[in-house]
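Section: Multi-chain targets

For targets with more than one molecule, the full set of components is provided together so that the structure can be written out for the assembly as a whole rather than chain by chain. Components appear in the order listed by the source. The example entry contains two components.
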Amino acid sequence: MSEESRKERRVLVAVDESDESMYALSWSLKNIIFQNSSDTLILLYVKPHHHDTYTHLDSTSIMDDPETPGHVLSPKASAAIKKYSQDVVDCVLQKSKRMCKDLENVKVETQVERGNPRDVICEMSRKLNADLLVLGSHDYGVMKRAFIESVSEYCYQNVKCPVLIVRKRKPHAGPGN
Amino acid sequence: MSEESRKERRVLVAVDESDESMYALSWSLKNIIFQNSSDTLILLYVKPHHHDTYTHLDSTSIMDDPETPGHVLSPKASAAIKKYSQDVVDCVLQKSKRMCKDLENVKVETQVERGNPRDVICEMSRKLNADLLVLGSHDYGVMKRAFIESVSEYCYQNVKCPVLIVRKRKPHAGPGN
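Its structure, encoded as tokens over all components, is:
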């Protein structure tokens, strides 16, 4: 590990409410991020469009989000959904930051964006000049994966920096977990 | 970086004659492998079937390799191709080991296997209990990538351990290279 490579290294970890993303963060903290280094760890949470589209509604408006069918919600319901959505974000980021509490000189930043996760992750990797993008990955079968793995597949194909895909091993998968 | 995670960490790097695989190894040496750690770095070279199929021929035999059309070769031509094939392997492994010469306590092992690279890389990741698989990746366009990226795509989908895909950035691609 050369000193040169320890300067201003920016590691972007996409976090969400899944165990897989928390495992990816945990693995990175053990294997990628260096204590007392000048690394910057950026925790990125992307709210999908549907996450809080309701928050843009008043009691009579129709959702104009292209990814979501139209609904009418009362201000009370809208506020409840907005609160729930924000609680999820806060919970994930708080949990992620707790996992980073032992890092000393490493800067930990959080970023919350909204949009299609795969597009936002790629865009933020560029905007934030990430030197490494870390993504969690599910251990699905081939058929299920064809749909669910699209974020990590898309990102690794479209992000310019190195991409680390951390698949949470099943307990029986053997050593190295 | 906890002490625990530094114990017996086995990093498998697939190397070949491409600049991309050498860049992936170089990036890993700066960002993944730790000086004075007890990491084991395994350099894996996979000879594709066609690489030295000729070496199994005598002057009258027909190739029986399912992936290669049949040919008849003189012993001299067969020997020349065999030597060239071995020279390529030796050259890649020597270059790779030279890049690792500054590592102190890190064990560096080399492994040469023969077969379909994507299958062999996945198989060896399991057999060698790799904690991390590192692959180089080309920066091709979408159409070209659809064919050429199959090794890294297949591996990241089929290997149980974390997979680091290092794409060699084009010079204009910005910082973090």
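The first helix of chain B runs from residue 3 to 6.
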